[in-house]
Amino acid sequence: MEAFLHQVLSGLATGGIYAIVALALVMIYQATHLVNFAQGEMAMFSTYLAWSMIDAGMSYWLAFACTVVLSFLLGIAIERIVIRPVGKAPVLAVVIVFIGLLVILNSVAGWIYTYTIKSFPSPFPSRTILGGYMSAHELGVMAVTLGVLALLFVFFRYTPLGLAMRAAAQNPVSSRLVGIRVGWMLALGWGLAAAIGAIAGMMVAPIVFLDPNMMAGILLYGFAGALLGGIDNPAGAVAGGFAVGVLENISGAYLVGTELKLTVALILIIGVLVIRPSGLFGRVLVNRV
């Protein structure tokens, strides 16, 4: 029973990371109705920026704040320079652009920082808590995830800019009629997604270490969480991320083994798409033909 409880609590901690990645994916999907396959590489590159600042002597939290701001600006720049020119292109063309962006960011990170694995510091104490079931970093990751979700809820629910971004994502035509600059709302959505992804990268780097390929598996788990909770529902995606973390740990410990844990995410993706494409908390849209 103690081992099972440890797997559940540890799964909640890793699920917090998947939840942040799922949240970033949802931010892009709500604006473009496309999945950003380069989200993991954007987070990885931002984490390298944070590592460079910390390695230069900057304090962790100052580097954290600077990285979030720089990632936000980088996300806006990517939307303006790369995504906006293909905004009206066929879906397949946009997907290829996402994949190209993934390869470019991975290669540039490897070229600048090399593919040598680097350690990344944790801002939380290196001790266990809750009777040894969780580490301070794992509990900190959960707190950061819930904090990001709360801030986004307040932003989109109670601020004029957040309401404008929601309106632009749901009905661009009507939003333009009332004076909302839809193009810039989309750019801000990309900026927020990049900033959220940077937080995910900085939270996962102390666990998996830092290298250009560190987010490959994390992105898959985050995508599974977003689909499970509902890819058009931020809160549902966060819940799905936590659920995927728990399922991954329990399955790896008692069913498939640690070597095949990644198949859990693939099975979830296929199962959700076949049985309930809208996810557990997503909206079901019905069109009259």
Descriptive overview:
There is one protein chain. The chain is mainly α and 289 residues long. It has one domain (2-275): Orthogonal Bundle (ABC transporter involved in vitamin B12 uptake, BtuC), CATH 1.10.3470. 73% of the residues lie in helices and 1% in strands. The chain contains eleven helices and two strands. It has helices spanning 2-32, 39-55, 60-83, 91-113, 136-158, 160-170, 172-177, 182-208, 216-229, 234-254, 262-275, and strands spanning 128-129, 134-135. Strands 1-2 form a two-stranded antiparallel ribbon. Strand 1 (128-129) and strand 2 form a beta hairpin. It starts with a helix and ends in a 14-residue tail after the last helix. The mean pLDDT is 83. It is a multi-pass membrane protein. Pfam families: BPD_transp_2. Keywords: Amino-acid transport, Cell membrane, Membrane, Transmembrane, Transmembrane helix, Transport.
Can you lay out the helices and strands and say which pair or pack?
Elements: H1 2-32, H2 39-55, H3 60-83, H4 91-113, E1 128-129, E2 134-135, H5 136-158, H6 160-170, H7 172-177, H8 182-208, H9 216-229, H10 234-254, H11 262-275
Antiparallel strand pairs: 1-2
Gross morphology is globular
Question: Over all CA atoms, what is the radius of gyration?
Answer: 19 Å
Task: Measure the end-to-end span.
Answer: 53 Å
Average pLDDT score: 83
Number of beta-strand segments: 2
Largest sheet descriptor: 2 strands, antiparallel
Helical amount among residues, as a percent range? over 70%
Tell me the structural class: mainly alpha
CATH structural class: Mainly Alpha
- Structurally, the number of domains stands at 1
Q: List the helices and strands in order.
A: HHHHEEHHHHHHH
Strand fraction equals under 5%
CATH fold descriptor: ABC transporter involved in vitamin B12 uptake, BtuC
Unreliable segments of 5+ consecutive residues: none
